[in-house]
Automatic annotation (TrEMBL):
It comes from Nakamurella endophytica. This is Transcriptional regulator. InterPro entries: ANTAR, CheY-like_superfamily, GAF, GAF-like_dom_sf, GAF_ANTAR, WH-like_DNA-bd_sf. Keywords: Kinase, Transcription, Transcription regulation, Transferase. GO terms for molecular function: kinase activity; RNA binding. Pfam families: ANTAR (PF03861), GAF_2 (PF13185). SMART domains: ANTAR, GAF. Residues 163-224 form the ANTAR domain.
Length: 232
């Protein structure tokens, strides 16, 4: 996707009304990551009072970096989501605004980031976050694209909050994202261990779930915590 018009057109094709909010946000997040010239991983943080969580993500790096901020209570995505400012980090290794967060984020491979606030009814409800493994990955085009994505995320959340569609409450959405995260971790373990693709790893998890008559997320959680699959 090369320009803002193409991004707008793709976002406009996302059906917002009558769909589960987490599904809509996941679709938008995927579009954003593909469109943003500098992004290697993208997430959406929603903030309500002191509660902040990742409502959707594309790329494990994004949720890992988000969680480092939630653990500390500060960082670019949280500050963007609360103060309504755009924050660009050119290099985590030299970042001084959030030194503890930046040091830990650099340790997991993130070198730069862009967080764009989500405006909604004269307030700010969160941020769209983008991460890259190289420094200075985000420029003016990324900021412009990020603002376009943020407006569509705010629209989707607004529909859910105004009752146009029921959606999930924050606790339910958090649980859904946690399930997806542990499944992605389990897939990564199987891919590295067996030299298989992501789709093949998902098939292994699904079959283990069926054999054990256990929910997929529980099978994934067991693999992540113990290194073994049930029924094997």
């Amino acid at each position: 996707m090369a320009d803002l018009t193409a991004l707008h057109e793709e976002l406009a094709r996302v059906v917002v009304v009558g769909r589960d909010l987490s599904v809509v946000l996941t679709e938008i997040t995927g579009i954003a990551r593909r469109a943003m010239p500098g992004a290697e991983a993208t997430s959406i943080t929603l903030v309500r009072g002191d509660d902040a969580h990742t409502a959707a993500f594309d790329g494990q790096l994004a949720i890992d970096a988000d969680e480092l901020q939630y653990e500390r209570g500060h960082g670019p995505c949280l500050d963007a989501g609360r103060a309504g400012q755009i924050f660009v980090v050119d290099d985590m290794r030299t970042e001084q605004r959030w030194p503890d967060y930046a040091r830990h984020t650099a340790a997991i491979g993130v070198r730069s980031s862009l967080s764009v606030p989500l405006p909604f009814q004269d307030a700010v409800i969160g941020a769209v976050n983008n991460y890259a493994t190289r420094p200075e990955a985000f420029g003016d085009t990324d900021v412009e694209f990020g603002q376009e994505v943020a407006s569509w995320v705010a629209l989707a959340v607004g529909h859910a909050r105004l009752g146009v569609q029921a959606g999930q409450d924050l606790a339910g959405m958090r649980a859904a994202m946690a399930s997806r995260a542990v499944i992605e971790q389990a897939k990564g373990i199987l891919m590295e261990r067996n030299g298989i693709t992501a789709d093949e790893a998902f098939t292994v998890l699904t079959r283990a779930s069926q054999r054990a008559n256990t929910k997929l997320r529980d099978v994934a959680r067991q693999l992540v915590s113990t290194g073994t699959l049930p029924g094997t």
